[in-house]
Design brief:
The complex is a heterodimer of chains A (about 475) and B (about 450). By secondary structure, chain A is α+β, with helices and mostly antiparallel strands. Chain A has 10 helices and 24 strands. Chain A has helices at about 1-10, 70-85, 120-135, 200-205, 210-225, 240-250, 255-260, 330-335, 370-375, 425-430, and strands at about 20-35, 35-40, 40-55, 60-65, 105, 140-155, 160-180, 185-190, 195, 230-235, 290, 315-320, 320, 345, 355, 360, 375-390, 395-405, 410-415, 420-425, 430-435, 440-450, 455-465, 465-475. In chain A, a hairpin with a 2-residue loop joins β3 (about 40-55) and β4. The longest helix of chain A is centred in the N-terminal third of the chain and has 18 residues, at about 70-85. Chain A is globular, with a radius of gyration of 23 Å. The termini of chain A are far apart. Chain B has 10 helices and 20 strands. In chain B, strands 1, 2, 3, 4, 5, 6 and 7 form a 7-stranded mixed sheet that branches. In chain B, strands 8, 13, 14, 15, 16, 17 and 20 form a 7-stranded mixed sheet that branches. The model of chain B has no long low-confidence stretch (mean pLDDT about 95). Classes of the chains: A alpha+beta (about 475), B alpha+beta (about 450). The interface between A and B is large, with 86 and 88 residues. β3 of chain A pairs parallel with β3 of chain B.
Chain lengths: ~475, ~450
Amino acid sequence: MLETLESLFRQVMPRVDFCSLRFVNERQEQVRVRQNIPQPVQRATDVGAMITVMHGGGLGYGATSELNASGLRWAAEQALHWAERTAGRAVFDFRKISPPLIHDEYAGPEEIPWDTVPLEDKFDLLNAESKRLKTDDRIVDWDAALWHVEKETLYLTSAGGRIFQRFSYMIPFLRATANQKAITQTRTLGGRGYCRQGGMELIDNVGFRTAAPQIAADAVALLSAPNCPTGKMDLVIAPDQAILQVHESIGHPLELDRILGDERNYAGTSFVKPEMFGTYRYGSDLLNITYDPTRPEQFSSFAYDDDGLKAEKQYLIEKGILRRGLGGLSSQLRSGIPGVANSRASSWNRPPIDRMANLNLEPGDKSFDEIISAIRSGIYMKTNSSWSIDDSRNKFQFGCEWAQLIEDGKLTTVVRNPNYRGISATFWRSLKMVGNDSTFEVLGTPNCGKGEPNQIMRVGHATPVCAFEGVDVFGGE
Amino acid sequence: MQQYFSDLADYVMRNVRGDEVVLVTFDAEQSDFVRFSRSTVRQAGSVSQRYLWLDLIRGQRHASSYTALAGDAATDRKRADALIGELRERLPHVPEDPYLLYSTEVRSTERSGDNRLPDRDAALDAIMQAGDGRDLVGIYAQGGIFSGFANSLGQRNWFSSYSFNFDWSFYHRDDKAVKTSYAGFSWDSAQFARKVQTAAEQLSILARPAKTVQPGQYRVYLAPAALSEFVGLLGWGGFSIKAHRTKSTPLLRMIEANALLSPMVTIRENTRDGIAPNFESAGFIKPDAVVLIENGRSRETLVSPRSAREYGVQPNGASGGESPDSLDMDGGDVPHDDILKRLDTGMFINQLWYLNFSDRPACRITGMTRFASFWVENGRIEAPLAVMRFDETSYRVLGDNLLCLTRERDFMPDPHTYEARSTSSARMPGAIVDKFMFTL
């Protein structure tokens, strides 16, 4: 298949300044047990290719699932048509780009391949966890699920470049929903945050076989918990909330295409301006944010982005100071701002744009107990359940599934419907303690939306527990 | 495309064995996308995609799979053969499905759109001209959208539509912009020019110094696009029978505590007047309309085939997510031209953004104002507003604090293009709401 594609690409490739083919073959399977009843297996295969042409300063693409000479010729014709039509009218003279010339291959980790475990065994596992979630009559709905994705990409360029990459993604999920009259509360295994690269070995690595009883107990306990109090207090967030905070209030505002204005009609702009790089105090001295492709198990580790740029670890924010943006080759050239290898496409039918990949908050030096014991009056929140932020990525409001008050250095009363709000940089400047390696978790999200046409992206985040000073906290109705 | 699907479906059905039942769903599109930023082209391209979903059923066991198609008959017949073979192999290993339900009543339908799309290069030229001297950003999408269903019982359903959707903003600076859309089936230069002119006029108001209001309660006008965002979020479990039965609906207080919305509120899934296919992947046909809220009271729910079997009720053509595709809210009695006078003093909000539940069981929703929103005093637009965060329950916004609805309604095709171009839509009035709570 791949050799045929390479040969066909050389045949249909027009004589232009630059041409590339990006092939994607993605197979997915979702296995789920709901209320102890196996659900239909969802299996999908998506395969296709995009041909991109840069010529005369313009850029165009054609994408097709018809992977023969006729289909690829059509795609090349479309790409050339759009490159010619946009030359002189494009955001940038694409002749200024020198695409990397790379020959390489990369494979992400997978110790126990998904397909080596029979379907019956997967259902057995999920049935067992499903039964462990139904611990109380008040639990009215519950699920145990595994979602596996296997992806291969091939990137060819008219200059002779060739990059082949292979990935295996796993997204485990557990949920219990409890109800009593007009109160309903849900607890999950970190939302869908426990997503990583790997195979069935991840089941044990993320605690999938041990989490269900606590998830169920939490959901039931929340039914009788008081509403979260309102007030300004210290806030401690677990990694399965901190990743969302990093994602929304650091990741998105640092995307160079937002700063350049490309996303203003849909995903939004950014409060970050080009002149802020190098000097702007984004957070306290404790804030260190990295673009980190070096943890193979993390959800968005790869060797090269979808424009062929090599992925290397970079500090975006160092000791609270903004250093670097999240932008691929063309955004770096357009803006003059240093970036990273994050030009990524959701699949073969969407063009690469600036996306987060692995965006991590580096660990500090405090244990969880040290953080809690240092707080006189505060709240500890776990697992994101609600997220909203303005289009400049300033005014945010987030909610969590679970919270406990912190009183005189101890975790005390469980409260429900915990929410907090703030302004991005003000909030990060109030970061007063960062957890050490023992609190650090490698997580991510499978569903980050952005772009026109719209794209869903897999993103990795790893963070420790974090503590903030004087945050506006409140509960439900 | 219809003939291609029909031939492929016939081929699949010829290979059905014994007591097998096969369901086939087909989705395809041929689209041009041109993305604009600062009145120049960011990315332009064309996409041709075709997908086939097969569900092989024997008794209460079934196995399904979804695959991309190439578009040439020989290759796709091989893919369909491989898929059926794989499903036959898998079938003995999957447990019986107690909630399997598919339509056994053969109801074939066809809704074929005419291709009256503009020349794509001419559309590009017209947009570039509209952006000349301005800061235009957005996306132009056009092309054919195709859906089909077939089963081995003889049912055939077909849907095709050729549409365009130009979703764009004119920017003044920073986050100050006027957002507009122009969508349809054939390009009308005069209509497009009017939309450009109206947006340009609103843009001039954004040049005035912005007014920043303090958190608190304000009287607001939610334009149809803003109200559509608010009511649209209710579609996330609000009208789903599964969400109702599992007590996870945001309208929980309506079913558990007799909470009501305003008698002015009637919401329906209006398939007849929408632009989405009227069939779903188990072969059920959607009724013309499903009344979800009537005069403030919860009425029917959206019922997928699986939920129908699980809860022992009749399906009504909803897909698995049980969310509306063609959301429709009744208008009121206030002419649009009287809105500023009726608002008197308060906020004129054109768009809301990034809504989410801050207390789901209480149906409390948070979100932001976005794009051109204005401060109005004594019935006159005074200044653009700095963006504000709201946090309010539906029971106040669509209940006690709902003052009136506009007589006119806007029809808004969904511009979203996640994986494929959407065929969803909303038809909404505007609303004046009292004591709308802003928090940040």
